[in-house]
Amino acid sequence: MRRKFMQLSFFCCLILSILACFAGPAPADSQAYGNKIFDPGKLKPVDSRLTLKTGDQAPDFTLTSTQGKAVHLGDFMGKKNVMLTFIPAAWTPVCSDQWPGYNIARDLFEKFDTTLIGISCDNLPSLFAWIKEMGDLWFDVVSDFHPHGAVSSSYGVLRSDGMSERAIFLIDKKGIIRFIHVGDINIRPDLGMIVNELKKISF
Amino acid sequence: MMCRYYRILKPAVNTRILLRFALMLVGALFLLVGEGMGQEKEPRLDFTLPSPEKKVHQTYLGLPGDTDFSLGQIKAEAVIIEIFSMYCPVCQREADNVNALFQLIQNSPEYKNRVRLIGIGAGNSSFEVDFFREKYSIEFPLFSDTDFSIHKRIGQVRTPHFFGLALAGDGRFKVFFSQSGEVSDPRAFLKTLLENSGIKDLP
Question: Using an 8 Å Cβ cutoff, are A105 and B131 in contact?
C-alpha cells in the first residue's frame, strides 16, 4: 500500500513538473512592472451572462475613484460619451497591458468627445498602487469592490470568481448603450475595433 | 464470475507494467514539449515578415518587392530588432530614445548603410502599430504581431526587448545581442550593442 502511494506520488510530481514546463511568462509582459505581475494562467473566456443590450439605458452608478472622488455616470449625460472599460484584476498580465494603451490615446478619445471610466472589482488601495506603477492615467479608475461587484453585476459582467469580465460599454450622451464588447478575458480588445465604434456614435 | 475477470485484468494493471508505461509516456511528453522549452532559452528568429507598405521602408531594408521576407534577407551587416507594445509604459517612455538611436545610425557614415533597425509590435494589431508609429513619429519600419505568434516563437520576452543580429549576407544570421529593458542612453546603447556584434570594422 505504502509502495503504491509512493509510486502514485512520484507520477503526480512528474506530471506536475511537465505541466510547469508549459507555463511561461505572460504575453508581452512589460518591463514596467518588474516581477510584480501575478499570472493567473488561462481563464475561462467568459463567465457571466449579459443582462443589457445595445439601445438600453446604461445603469447609473456612483463609485469612488483612486483619486478619492465620487464618479457619477449620470454627470456625463449631455456632455460626453463615456466608455466604460471593465477589467478583471489589477497586477495581472493582460489588464496591466490595456489601460496604458488608452493612456496614450487620449487625443483619439477626445476627438470623439469621449471620456473613459476604468472599473475593477479590486479594492482602492490595490488599484491605487497599480495605477501609480503605470505612471498615472488621465481617466478615472473606480473600484467596484464594495458591495462587491454591484456595478459589474448590474451590467451583467460579474464572473463567478468575483472578477469582472474584460468588457467595453460605449454610452452616448443620452445615456444609451451603443456598443458592448465582452471579449475573451485572456485577450486585450483591439483599439481599432473601439475606434470604429466611436466613429459610429460620434457621426 | 468477478474473480475470473479480475484474473484476466490483473496482469494489465500490474504495477511494473504501469511504471514502464508511465515512464514511456513521460519520455514522450518531454520530447513533445522539448521544442517549446527550448524556445525560451534560444529565441527562434526564423520567421517571416510582410513587406513594408511604404516604399521608403522597402528601400531601407533592401527588399526587392511586396513579398514576405525573412530577417536574413535584409540588406545590412547588422539588424537591431525592438520588440515593443503600444500598451507597454516603458516602450512609450522609451520611444524617443529609440528614435534617437535610429537617428544616430542614420547620421553616422559608418553605420548608415550597414545597420538597420526595425520594430515588432507584440500582440499589437496593424491599427495599434500605426497608432504607435504616428504617436511617436517613428521613421523606421514597424511590423504587427497581432496574435503573438512571433512573440511566442522568440521566447515571450518582456517589452521592450532588443535583439542584435549579425547577417552573413547569404540569408544566415547570428544573434549577438538579446536584452530586455530600457535604452536610456542611445549612444552608449548602440556602442554596447555593436561591440558585441563581432562585425569587422564596425566600431
Answer: yes
B88 to A18: CB separation less than 8 angstroms, yes or no: no
**Cα separation, A27 vs A33, whole angstroms:** 13
CA distance A172 to A83: 9
DSSP, collapsed to helix, strand or coil, labels residue A4 as: helix
Residue with cell 470568481: A161
* Minimum distance, in Å, between the CA of residue A134 and any CA atom of chain B: 6
Task: Identify the bridge partners of residue B123 per DSSP, sorted by sequence position.
Answer: none
Reported residue count of chain B is: 203
CA atoms of A59 and A178, how far apart (whole Å): 13
Model-level pTM greater than 0.90?
Answer: no
CA–CA separation, A202 vs B89, rounded Å?
A: 29
**Cell reading at B17:** 507494467
- Peptide bond before residue B160 is cis, with ω within 30 degrees of 0: yes
Handedness of CA A51, A53, A59, A64 (dihedral sign): positive
Cβ pair B26:A14 closer than 8 A? yes
- Tell me how far apart the alpha carbons of residues A184 and A187 are, in angstroms, rounded to a whole number: 5
Q: What is the pLDDT of residues A88-147, one digit of tens each?
A: 999 898 888 899 999 999 999 999 999 999 999 999 999 999 999 998 899 999 999 999
